[in-house]
């Protein structure tokens, strides 16, 4: 809880301070509600959600004095309502071994780091993990994945830069099956500059995976960078269509005062949120819990 609270402190201090300033010695009326709505929109919660929360707060309290703490309590309860339906842990089905997790997202969103953190988590649970360096486009991505592999004791399947991603994924699937690995995590490219090419590559990767194991991938994780704000919404649309995203990880929530974007994404798409990233360290990946998150961001 402390790590989560610290991680979300940029968002919570902005929202929390805003609420205190707004409601100290002021009545709840049209003007304060409108200012609150602006505050929520600035935190990237989205226009619809901001309007709904503001309306809920106004009900039965209009024209009365209200303490900032009561506002915070109503706010966090309303946010929790939006988040509760999307809070799902990533459950690894041992019967499916290798349980295949395909990780997608734009470059810089935190894919490789998240893969490293996930590998560490699974290893700590006693599972064997293999990593596939499917971002064959960037030498740095391959190198970084190898470092995470060493750090977590997970073999890394890699080819030289520029080789075919689907071919690499084929190798990794076979290697994980042969080794009897519990979890195979596959990295992918994320160069959104050439969307058509990237999506074609992802489709090809998916075909190869399914050819080897018709039930795979068992999870398609989209990694979203919270600091990109509203762009996250577009990324869910773009990747959701092609890659058949089954769940989300939102990273860098520690690096933004606009952590409400997670609420906007949840409200708009209803996709499961499995984890949130609140720092660069290996332990800075938290299972997503609706109530804790809602409490943590309101300050
Ligand atoms: P990729 O290009 O999608 O593979 O992204 P990387 O994993 O290389 O991450 C890009 C940068 O974001 C790196 O400097 C990471 O350390 C950093 N990063 C990843 N996740 C988080 C997070 O949750 N919080 C913070 N503050 N930085 C993160």
TrEMBL record:
* Location relative to the cell: Cell inner membrane; Cell membrane; Cytoplasm
**Topology class, membrane:** Peripheral membrane protein
Q: Which residue range or ranges hold the SRP54-type proteins GTP-binding domain?
A: 272-285
The top EC class is: hydrolase
Q: Which GO terms describe its biological process?
A: SRP-dependent cotranslational protein targeting to membrane
Alphabetized, the UniProt keywords read:
Cell membrane, Cytoplasm, GTP-binding, Hydrolase, Membrane, Nucleotide-binding, Receptor
Write down the chemical reaction(s) this protein catalyses.
Answer: GTP + H2O = GDP + phosphate + H(+)
For this protein, what is any one GO molecular function term? Answer: signal recognition particle binding
- Transmembrane stretches, start-end: none
Q: What is its EC number?
A: 3.6.5.4
- What GO cellular component term, any one, is given? cytoplasm
Similarity field: Belongs to the GTP-binding SRP family. FtsY subfamily.
Q: What does this protein do?
A: Involved in targeting and insertion of nascent membrane proteins into the cytoplasmic membrane. Acts as a receptor for the complex formed by the signal recognition particle (SRP) and the ribosome-nascent chain (RNC). Interaction with SRP-RNC leads to the transfer of the RNC complex to the Sec translocase for insertion into the membrane, the hydrolysis of GTP by both Ffh and FtsY, and the dissociation of the SRP-FtsY complex into the individual components.
Q: How does it assemble?
A: Part of the signal recognition particle protein translocation system, which is composed of SRP and FtsY. SRP is a ribonucleoprotein composed of Ffh and a 4.5S RNA molecule.
State the protein's name.
Signal recognition particle receptor FtsY
Q: What is the native source organism of this protein?
A: Phreatobacter stygius
The record's gene field reads: ftsY
Q: Which residues of the full protein are shown?
A: 93 to 391 of 394
């Amino acid at each position: 809880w402390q790590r989560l609270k610290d991680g979300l402190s940029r968002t919570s201090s902005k929202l929390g301070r805003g609420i205190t300033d707004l409601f100290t010695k002021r009545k709840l009326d049209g003007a304060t509600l409108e200012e609150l709505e602006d505050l929520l929109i600035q935190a990237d919660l989205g226009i619809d959600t901001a309007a709904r929360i503001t309306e809920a707060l106004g009900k039965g309290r209009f024209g009365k004095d209200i303490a900032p703490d009561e506002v915070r309590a109503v706010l966090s309860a309303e946010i929790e309502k939006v988040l509760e339906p999307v809070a799902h842990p990533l459950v690894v089905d041992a019967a499916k071994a290798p349980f295949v997790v395909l990780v997608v997202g734009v470059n810089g969103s935190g894919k490789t780091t998240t893969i490293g953190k996930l590998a560490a988590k699974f290893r700590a649970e006693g599972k064997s993990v293999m990593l596939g360096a499917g971002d064959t486009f960037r030498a740095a991505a391959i190198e970084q994945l190898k470092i995470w592999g060493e750090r977590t004791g997970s073999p890394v399947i890699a080819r030289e830069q520029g080789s075919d991603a689907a071919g690499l994924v084929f190798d990794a699937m076979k290697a994980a099956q042969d080794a009897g690995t519990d979890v195979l995590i596959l990295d992918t490219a994320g160069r959104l500059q050439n969307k058509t090419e990237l999506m074609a590559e992802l489709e090809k990767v998916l075909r190869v995976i399914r050819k080897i194991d018709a039930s795979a991938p068992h999870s398609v994780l989209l990694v979203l960078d919270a600091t990109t704000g509203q762009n996250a919404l577009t990324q869910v649309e773009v990747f959701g269509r092609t890659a058949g995203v089954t769940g989300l990880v939102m990273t860098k929530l520690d690096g933004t005062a606009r952590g409400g974007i997670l609420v906007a994404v949840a409200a708009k798409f209803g996709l499961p949120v499995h984890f949130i990233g609140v720092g660069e360290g290996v332990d800075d990946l938290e299972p997503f819990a609706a109530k804790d998150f809602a409490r943590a961001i309101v300050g």
